[in-house]
Amino acid sequence: LLLGCELTASTKSYTFQVDEEDDSDHILALSVVCLTDGAKDECNVVEVVGRNHENQEIAVPVANLKLSCQPLLSLDNFKLQPPVTFRLAAGSGPVHLAGWHRIMHREDASFEEDDVSEEDEEELPPIMPAKK
Fold this sequence. Notes:
Blueprint: E1 2-7, E2 13-16, E3 24-35, E4 44-51, E5 57-65, E6 72-80, E7 84-90, E8 95-105
Antiparallel strand pairs: 1-8, 2-7, 3-6, 3-8, 4-5, 4-7
């Protein structure tokens, strides 16, 4: 599933949530963050707000965009675990976020890895120093 949202001066945050009752694993991946039509030449800082291992809220800046020098940032499918909030911490946008959402049903997916013995692994040659 594709994800898209826009952060502006009037809509500073967007929260992506999944149903708590859902017995599936969800992966949210952020691909691109970019300024769109109407953006001013100012710093636009986008934060991801989530929870750490102690269930405390934590905000991490993922993009600092400016129309004149960096209007677009590719995040190469930066994976996040929902629920997650995207927040425009500075600037007035508009900033567009794009990515994808994958649902893996636990009964359909097998998380067991195949047993691979050391004999089956391909042996790599040792690294040799470069010849001068």
